[in-house]
Each structure stands twice: as C-alpha cells, then as structure tokens.
Amino acid sequence: MQALSASDLGVLHQRLHAQPALAPMLVRVARTQGSVPREAGAWMAVWPESAGLSTLGTVGGGRLEHDAIAAARAAWGKSRAAPAAFEQRYPLGPSLGQCCGGVVWLAFEPLAPALDASQWADVQQRLLGTRSPVALFGSGHVGRAIVQALAPLPFALTWIDSRDEPFPPDLPPHVKAEHSDPVERAVPTLAPCSQVLVMSFSHAEDLAVVQACLERMRTHNDLPFVGLIGSATKWATFRHRLAERGYADAELARITCPIGLPTIGGKHPAVIAASVAAQLLQRASSPD
Questions:
Q1: pTM of the predicted structure, to 2 decimals
Q2: Separation of alpha carbons 196 and 190, rounded Å
Q3: Nearest to 135 by CA among 207, 204, 189
Q4: Is the peptide bond before 258 cis (omega within 30 degrees of 0)?
Q5: Domain ranges across the chain
Q6: Cβ atoms of residues 87 and 107 within 8 Å
Q7: What percent of the chain has pLDDT over 70?
Q8: Domain spanning 132-285 has what CATH number?
C-alpha cells in the first residue's frame, strides 16, 4: 500500500492554479528492487530554477533526491520547450553515498501547463494511487480528528453522519462525505473490504450500525475490520443485546471495542485518532 500525501497533492493543485504557465517536472518512483527509502508510487514535483519555486513531496531524500532534482532541472535546461519524459536508474550504493543497497528507477514526466479539469483528474488519480477503503460513522470531535490523522495516509475515506450538514466545508481529496438517515442504511453500500469505524453521536446509532455490519458480514463477509469506540462496559451491553437478537459468539468476536492500539493510552481526540490510524496501518501491513 502506498503512503502518498494528499496534502502535498492539494498544494500542487494550488500552485498549478496560481501559476498555470509554470508547470513542474513530476518525478515518481516507478519501481524498486531491494532495500529502498520510498515505495513505488512516491513522488515529488520539481520546478525549473527560473520559476523561483521549490520542490514539493519526496522520493526518499539524501543524495538520491539531490541527484533527481538536478536531473529534472537539467532536462528543463536542455530545451526551451517542455522536455520529453524519461526514466533513470539509481543504485543506492557507495557511488551515490547511500547504503540502502537497493535500486530505484525514477520516472521523470513534465506536467502540461494550464491543466484542464480532466487532465488534473488524471494526474490526481495517478498520484493518489490505490487506497484502502475506510468508512467512518460519526462527525464528532474524535471523528474529525481521525479524518485529519488519515489525511496523509493511504486510505480512501467515506465519512457518514445522519445529521444535516455536520461536515466541514474543506475535505481532503480522498474523503467523501455522505448524509444517511437512518445512518445504518449506508452500510450495504460501502465499498467491498472497507474497514469500518463506528463513533456516531448516540449509542442507539452505534448499535444500529454495528448490527448492520454484522448482517453484511453474514451475507458478504467483506468487512475485514469493524471497530467501535467506547469502553469495555459499553461493548458488554452491546454484546448482550446483539446476542439476544441472534448473533453468535463467533460473529460478535469480529467486532473490536474499544478501537485503537491498546499500548497507546489517552482520551484526547487527537490521541485516539493517532492510535486508530496506527491500528489501521498495522492491519494493512500485516499479512492475513
């Protein structure tokens, strides 16, 4: 899974909009071999020195990035027109002053000036890459903190609430906000393999969403993780009610409550959000 920065993508869009004639060279990790500092798909934008703009993003830092910036700017300097796309191989050994030992292939691609909406959508899709779907039920303090925590991480977030207009106006490019009343009606439409986080404004809504998730797991078995915010006491109450409604122990064991890594304590929304983000990343990196 690629850890691409949606926040950097937003800055790139702002710069292209503010100065459409000054398009940068896009440098992406095309593929890798062995130990390397960044994964395939990582990117940075390099503007010509004459543009007076810095770089944006990173492909790994150190001498690798220094040489990549030089190569991008050298390509701009060879022609008054936009340079052609090219690819370059970088062994990360003594000659490059890096001891990773692997090999990185960097793809250099000049962005067209004054991108139209369709061209920008294509660039955005390629830079965001493949993201793991997450469904977040609840737009309270913790929900908002989780959105901020997941913003630079490789997740595609569907943010759901039953209340009218509960969402902030400016959302990251990979966050889709939905109104659903009743809120549990959104569960059958979630993307397959969504990881679900439940933290609505009421225990009644939380229970309804958890039950809808259990029903979906019975019929499709395509929700790998359902996490419920709350205490052990809250889950004991929910578990008793759900058992009375016919759910077996094995089904109820698939609900995680409380959410977050148990080794990270604290009840501040930002701390909970960091713990939940770490839990999702840990699950993503652990083979099933």
A1: 0.70
A2: 9
A3: 189
A4: yes
A5: 6-128, 132-285
A6: yes
A7: 91
A8: 3.40.50.720
- Taking residue 263's Cβ as centre, other Cβ atoms within 10 Å add up to 7
**Tokens describing residue 176:** 């889709």
List the strands of the sheet with 225-228, edge to edge: 175-179, 155-161, 132-137, 195-198, 225-228, 255-256
Give the span between the Cα atoms of 73 and 208, in whole angstroms. Answer: 56
SS3 state at 141: helix
- Write the CB contacts of 246 (distance below 8 Å, at least 6 apart in sequence): none
pLDDT tens-place string over residues 165-187: 789 888 887 899 999 999 999 99
Q: Is 198 exposed, middle or buried (0-12, 13-18, 19+ CB in 10 A)?
A: buried
> What is the CB neighbour count within 10 angstroms for residue 242?
19
The answer to whether 29 and 57 have CB atoms below 8 angstroms apart is no
- Transcribe 163-189 into DSSP letters: SSS-S-S---TTEEEEE-SSGGGGGGG
Q: Which two tokens stand for residue 39?
A: 């994964």
Residue 44 identity (one-letter amino acid): M
In this structure, what is the dihedral angle of CA atoms 256, 260, 264, 270, given to the nearest 10 degrees? Answer: -150
